[in-house]
Write a sequence for this structure.
């Protein structure tokens, strides 16, 4: 800190002795990382993710385009992977919940892109029609209502991606996204794999912090 | 920029690596394994102000002129040993919902130092 009519902290001092300042520097590094991530303390992991699910998700996470970091006044961007928790389900529908930490970031989150990734197991030479419903809180109460839906036809086993629209992005921004999978055809029971750790469905989101309420001074 | 050596007194970059295992953060930070923080330290005599690391520019020239004109009254010249080149720190970590987050935090790694 440079004060009027005084020298700044580093001036007039030789290089510091690292060993005697080690604790101070470690605390400074910890505080610096937590501040930049808008965390008051290090997260405590309440729902550990299996290594298989982590490996699968990371293989599908695409990095941001080169140059994004320096554009737009170097606003910090995040990519988040949220793993599904299975909510109310029956043979006709499966409900998935995704949680995002909207309260960790000052000024709220601005979701730029969100994708739903899910693994489907199908018998050979078969197709499967499915509706993916996006739920959002009703404007009049807290009940969830269908905000949009996407009809998909899946013709091969493997990972599938659905780019989610603005309704889903808004739900992610508010910290909670609910999707419902409704099979239209029943060629294969339980075609979407839910319980195997390596095939757990997830949502990837690209997030910009503080986008909505930012005031820019020129 | 100059990297600090034993007994350095002039403005230089001191390397400092924070091993996440050492501070018990390896469970929530997936990658990288540590943080090459580094920092700037050392003296900035007036004749060094504005160099190295800060490219010659109109602003540098004006600042140097101001310093030269006011040097008599201020021993230190208010010149500081500061980062002149910084890089982002890429982190892959678990948040408190056990989501996996990837982000690039700008200006976290000091690459070079110079006198302001």
């Amino acid at each position: 800190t440079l004060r009027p009519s005084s020298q700044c902290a580093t001036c007039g001092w030789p290089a510091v002795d690292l060993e005697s300042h080690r604790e101070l520097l470690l605390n400074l590094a910890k505080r610096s990382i937590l501040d930049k991530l808008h965390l008051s303390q290090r997260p405590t992991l309440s729902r550990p993710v299996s290594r298989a699910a982590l490996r699968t998700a990371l293989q599908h996470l695409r990095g941001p385009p080169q140059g994004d970091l320096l554009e737009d006044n170097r606003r910090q961007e995040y990519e988040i992977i949220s793993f599904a928790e299975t909510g109310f389900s029956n043979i006709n529908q499966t409900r998935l919940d995704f949680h995002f930490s909207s309260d960790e970031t000052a000024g709220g989150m601005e979701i730029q892109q969100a994708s739903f990734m899910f693994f489907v197991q199908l018998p050979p030479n078969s197709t499967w029609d499915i509706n993916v419903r996006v739920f959002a809180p009703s404007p009049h109460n807290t009940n969830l209502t269908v905000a949009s839906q996407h009809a998909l036809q899946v013709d091969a086993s493997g990972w599938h991606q659905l780019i989610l629209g603005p309704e889903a992005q808004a739900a992610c921004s508010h910290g909670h996204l609910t999707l419902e999978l409704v099979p239209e055809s029943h060629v294969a029971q339980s075609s979407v794999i839910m319980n195997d750790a390596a095939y757990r469905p997830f949502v990837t989101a690209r997030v910009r912090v503080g986008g909505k309420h930012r005031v820019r001074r020129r | 920029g100059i990297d600090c050596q034993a007994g350095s007194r002039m403005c230089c970059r001191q390397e400092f690596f924070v091993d996440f295992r050492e501070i018990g953060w390896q469970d929530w930070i997936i990658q990288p394994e540590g943080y090459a923080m580094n920092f700037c330290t050392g003296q900035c005599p007036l004749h060094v102000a504005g160099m190295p690391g800060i490219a010659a520019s109109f602003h540098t020239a004006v600042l140097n002129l101001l310093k030269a004109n006011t040097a008599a009254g201020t021993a230190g010249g208010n010149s500081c040993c500061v980062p002149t080149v910084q890089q982002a720190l890429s982190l892959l970590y678990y948040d408190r919902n056990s989501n996996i987050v990837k982000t690039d935090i700008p200006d976290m790694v000091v690459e070079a130092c110079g006198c302001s």
